[in-house]
């Protein structure tokens, strides 16, 4: 007889590994295509030599470096085993009853419904607008006395769209201060909104203790395989996060690589300029071929193909490019190197493909 586990976990789908397509180009996980910078590679090798020693559980050096970079104090910064671990920890510090509600847009980051269920709380999902943007007015209206946590993924994964500063401020002001609002800025470094409308969560959070910002080293900083992200917020929220943190889960190698990457950030952020141009080139080519593609402020684009999504993903894989279909909503395509993007474009703009998918 198998031991009993929580029956409510049955509603969480078991992990199903993606089909293997040997030699295919992978534009499915929003990774960067470059390996770590030489300075980061050196820090990684040096830290690995001390693998017999536990890492600093408080990540003091990394938190100090982040505090310095962001213009906050170390007490305002927590780190996690990827920002996805911080998402789960944020549910843990806010929800303690199954009737507690976690509010987020849908479709948005696929981890939100999972971490909500793992935390035994109730997910409340508010549809994106027809333009695939967060419907912040509807989200504010969906807040109840049971709402404990709100995730705003800005820019949004997988639709790529961002909400601007004025809209975001209006939302933050409309939500009661007892509700913790998470601004998940995993793609912050790829945003190119006008300066006066730039929604920088760290700035907006300075005067709002119920706002916490998540950023990550996995995307623009290119360290997805090492698992390190961070939260910036009020010291009380940070202290609570550190209480539920799985001990030593941000390992020594990850901490060293993050510090080195932060020091070399100008080189890393320069790469985002090239990527943004490439992203816009891909979007323009798809628009010209007749696809609907919402404007992207990330390192991917969104094709709202509805019921055709799964079949489109399968056909793209057969053509040698792995993309990410999401149910009956759409397909997310990461921006890779120009030759990888060209391979995807030659598939997607092929007249036979366009005819098959009624583009
Ligand atoms: C990729 C991503 C993250 C975090 O990734 P980690 O690798 O866990 O840091 C968080 N939020 C969103 C919306 C993402 O797309």
Automatic annotation (TrEMBL):
Which keywords annotate this record? Aminotransferase, Pyridoxal phosphate, Transferase
* Enzyme Commission no: 2.6.1.57
Annotated catalysed reactions: an aromatic L-alpha-amino acid + 2-oxoglutarate = an aromatic oxo-acid + L-glutamate
Which GO terms are recorded in the biological process aspect for this UniProt protein? L-histidine biosynthetic process
Q: Name one GO molecular function term.
A: histidinol-phosphate transaminase activity
Signal sequence region: none
Q: Which residues carry this modification: N6-(pyridoxal phosphate)lysine?
A: 219
The Aminotransferase class I/classII large domain extends over 25-342
- Cofactor(s) for this UniProt protein: pyridoxal 5'-phosphate
Residue ranges of the TM segments: none
Give any Pfam family that matches: Aminotran_1_2
Instruction: Note whether Iron occurs among the keywords.
Output: no
Protein family:
Belongs to the class-II pyridoxal-phosphate-dependent aminotransferase family.
What is the recorded function of this protein according to its Swiss-Prot or TrEMBL entry?
A: Aminotransferase that catalyzes the conversion of aromatic amino acids and 2-oxoglutarate into corresponding aromatic oxo acids and L-glutamate.
Q: How does it assemble?
A: Homodimer.
What is the official name of this protein in its record? Aromatic amino acid aminotransferase
Organism of origin is Nocardia colli
């Amino acid at each position: 007889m198998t031991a009993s586990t929580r029956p409510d976990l049955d509603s969480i789908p078991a992990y199903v590994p993606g089909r293997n397509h040997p030699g295919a180009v992978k534009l499915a996980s929003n990774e960067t295509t470059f390996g770590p910078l030489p300075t980061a590679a050196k820090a990684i090798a040096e830290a690995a030599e001390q693998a017999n020693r536990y890492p600093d559980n408080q990540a003091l050096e990394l938190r100090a470096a982040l505090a310095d970079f962001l213009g906050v104090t170390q007490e305002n910064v927590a780190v996690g085993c990827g920002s996805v671990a911080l998402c789960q920890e944020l549910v843990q510090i806010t929800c303690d009853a199954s009737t507690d509600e976690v509010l987020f847009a849908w479709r948005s980051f696929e981890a939100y419904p999972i971490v909500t269920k793992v935390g035994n709380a109730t997910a409340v999902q508010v549809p994106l607008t027809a333009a695939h943007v967060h419907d912040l007015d509807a989200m504010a209206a969906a807040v109840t006395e049971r709402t404990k946590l709100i995730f705003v993924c800005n820019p949004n994964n997988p639709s790529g769209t961002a909400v601007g500063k004025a809209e975001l401020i209006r939302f933050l002001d409309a939500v009661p201060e007892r509700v913790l609002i998470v601004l998940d800025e995993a793609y912050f470094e790829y945003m190119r909104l006008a300066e006066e409308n730039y929604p920088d969560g760290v700035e907006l959070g300075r005067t709002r203790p119920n706002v916490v910002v998540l950023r990550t080293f996995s995307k623009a900083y290119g360290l997805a395989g090492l698992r390190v992200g961070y939260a910036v917020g009020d010291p009380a929220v940070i202290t609570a996060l550190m209480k539920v943190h799985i001990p030593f889960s941000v390992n020594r190698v990850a901490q060293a690589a993050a510090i080195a990457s932060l020091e070399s950030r100008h080189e890393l952020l320069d790469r985002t300029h090239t990527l943004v141009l490439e992203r816009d080139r891909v979007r323009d080519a798809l628009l010209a071929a007749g696809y609907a593609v919402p404007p992207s402020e990330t390192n991917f684009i969104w094709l709202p193909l509805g019921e055709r999504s799964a079949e489109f993903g399968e056909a793209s894989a057969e053509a040698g490019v792995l993309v990410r279909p999401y149910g009956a909503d759409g397909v997310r395509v990461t921006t890779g190197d120009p030759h990888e993007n060209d391979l995807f474009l030659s598939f997607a703009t092929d007249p036979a493909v366009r005819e098959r998918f009624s583009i």
